[in-house]
């Protein structure tokens, strides 16, 4: 979907119902901004949205005579729902021609996939979703009345929220509008929570009372004991910030993994053996073209190894550093370098090939 200076334009040749509805909303807003009230001009502007694709233009041209007799909108004075008082004969004719006669049945099948989310506004989101779904089916055999809509929503409520409605004495015999308001009041007083939060709540309630000198951890409680001071514990560490798109583009050039931040990692991010990015012993800074060139030279000299991000940051002090042991996961294709190879004498560069253990 896109917009021009004087109108809107459909940017996909095979639009779905959601795309057509979104286009209709854009057109209505655009016409209001431009103060266009003439019905013929509105129709012309809407047809311009399909000018990018010849297949859509030819499809709509087949019903040009039918569209000439269709009204832009029709107001239904008998409808009590303010969101459902308008019929769109012109739009409906174009929609039926593009999507085919069977579009309503295919779209109605999506209703079965709607569920109430376990969050504080799960009921409100479910109601809004089903009402929008039902509104788009008006004029078809799949459009439901408010009574049927209420029954469909009740079927999708989780047992926890149903019990909350029973506790608050919300009757299912109420009119749909009143029932919906009452359910939203219950939602505000007893917001649904996710299963993980509920599990942790039950788990914390079942735990024994802890002493004052204890703190929780994953396996239970442990008392605070005096520990010896590690001289390296005071070393300052730094973390990786969120990378901007320009920085990501540079890392793409050196086949970086965006989980462990190793350059030429030899694996994809979704197959990375590390849980997350490591801590840095030096302040983080974005890589530049010189860093990328250096990493490329290192990879040329040692193609079987990955290059830690920190190794590039500390390239000036690397000759004085000492190798450290590093565990290698089975899915990792390369072992990370701990020292820079001698790039001036490639023939003297040691082999970093990983040999299988005996």
Rg (C-alpha, Å) = 32 Å
Task: Give me the count of strands.
Answer: 9
Structural class of the secondary elements?
mainly alpha
**Mass-distribution shape:** flat
Tally of individual domains: 3
Strand content: 5-15%
Instruction: Sketch the topology as an H/E string, one letter per element.
Output: EEHHHHEEHHHHHHHEEHEHEHE
Q: Give the rounded overall mean pLDDT.
A: 75
Number of helices: 14
Looking at the chains present, what oligomeric state does this protein adopt?
single chain
Strand order of the largest sheet: 7-8-9
Instruction: List segments where confidence is low: pLDDT < 50 over at least 5 consecutive residues.
Output: 194-202, 209-233, 316-332
Residues in helix, %: 40-55%
Distance between the termini: 60 Å
The major sheet is characterized as: 3 strands, mixed
Structure in words:
The structure is a single chain. By secondary structure, the chain is mostly helical. The chain has 3 domains: 2-101, no CATH class; 113-189; 245-348, no CATH class. 40% of the residues lie in helices and 7% in strands. It has helices at residues 17-33, 39-48, 54-61, 64-68, 89-99, 103-108, 122-136, 146-155, 159-167, 176-189, 195-206, 245-253, 289-301, 309-313, and strands at 2-4, 7-9, 74-75, 86-87, 214-217, 220-223, 262-263, 305-308, 335-336. Strands 7-8-9 form a 3-stranded mixed β-sheet. α8 (146-155) runs parallel beside α10 (176-189). Residues 194-202, 209-233 and 316-332 have low confidence and may be disordered.
